[in-house]
Design brief:
Length: about 120
């Protein structure tokens, strides 16, 4: 069983930065694709970014150039560096792991961008 624990959310002013972390248990992290999704109130959950086991990354158009996903396989951790944050980035952010047809989710961390 894989457990994912996110951290790093909080309140930040527009234009500010936050770094989210997601620590995974188990032994499959390095072989897995890791992703970050977000869900704003009243909206569907959307993919923000993902990183493959080989380090290939992709981003939603709305965050390209502002967010960076990275991973540290030695620490079983994936990160999301978020810069130039906007009020419309306010959402609950969820980490997920894809491996062998199974998806695991974290419990989420809240990001609020407001002055």
């Amino acid at each position: 069983q894989v457990q994912l624990v996110e951290s790093g959310g909080g309140l930040v002013q527009p234009g500010g930065s936050l770094r989210l972390s997601c620590a995974a248990s188990g032994s499959i992290f390095s072989m897995s694709t890791m992703g970050w999704h977000r869900q704003a109130p009243g909206k569907q959950r959307e993919l923000v970014a993902y990183i493959s086991s080989g380090g290939y990354t992709t981003y939603a158009d709305s965050v390209k150039g502002r967010f960076t996903i990275s991973r540290d396989n030695a620490k079983n951790t994936v990160y999301l560096q978020m810069n130039s944050l906007k009020p419309e980035d306010t959402a609950a952010f969820y980490c997920n792991l894809w491996y062998a047809g199974t998806t695991y989710w974290g419990q989420g961390t809240q990001v609020t961008v407001s002055s």
